[in-house]
């Protein structure tokens, strides 16, 4: 098996609270993860800034008239790798990220002809930014939630940046350069995610018992 076959596709959902067109650290780190995945033959489009879309509250795949989630969900299901990026607010993931997790809960109701969730075989990674502590706590929430609804997690499935306590660098997007530790972690996240996604695409999970 080469690193170029079978072909893979990724989608990134940024859960920033900042609507377009303003700059966003969560969008930036999501794009960096996509670019790192691209180095392993994974194709991708633009980062989906969820706050720009009318994603209704709820836990169904479609919450009715005007709900933007069905179109976003379609992109997720068409992808092999999901990148979920969130800022840190008061030590927690954003409210937009929580809404995404709640909408993904609907995936527990959808299976293929062998009884497997439609998310089985898809790999998820997280990306967290903030000027305060909370990345490890948020990572735990992302890991549990995403795995619960069928996504697989590779080793080192999150990249993150937090400013030092009371530091001067208040926003990831304002850094003069990506810190070496973040760049290295992002590269590892992408390599491992692409590797696992390729393995799962070539050899899917067994039918549900």
Structure characterization notes:
This is NADPH-dependent oxidoreductase. One of its GO terms (molecular function) is oxidoreductase activity. Helices cover 34% and strands 17% of the residues. It is an alpha/beta fold and 209 residues long. It has a single domain (8-202), classed as 3-Layer(aba) Sandwich (Rossmann fold). Strands 1, 2, 3, 4, 5, 6 and 7 form a 7-stranded mixed sheet that branches. Strand 6, helix 4 and strand 7 (158-162) form a beta-alpha-beta unit. The radius of gyration is 17 Å and the shape is globular.
Summed up, what is this model?
By secondary structure, the chain is of the alpha/beta class. Helix content is 34%, strand content 17%. Strands 1, 2, 3, 4, 5, 6 and 7 form a seven-stranded mixed sheet that branches.
Number of helices: 5
Rg over CA atoms: 17 Å
Number of domains: 1
The helix-strand sequence is EHEEHEEHEHEH
Biggest pleated sheet: 7 strands, mixed
Superfamily (CATH H level) name: Flavodoxin domain
- Which structural class do you get from the secondary structure elements? alpha/beta
* Average pLDDT taken over every residue: 94
Q: How many DSSP-defined strands?
A: 7
Overall 3D shape: globular
GO molecular function, one term: oxidoreductase activity
Protein name: NADPH-dependent oxidoreductase
InterPro entries: Flavoprotein-like_sf, FMN_Rdtase-like_dom
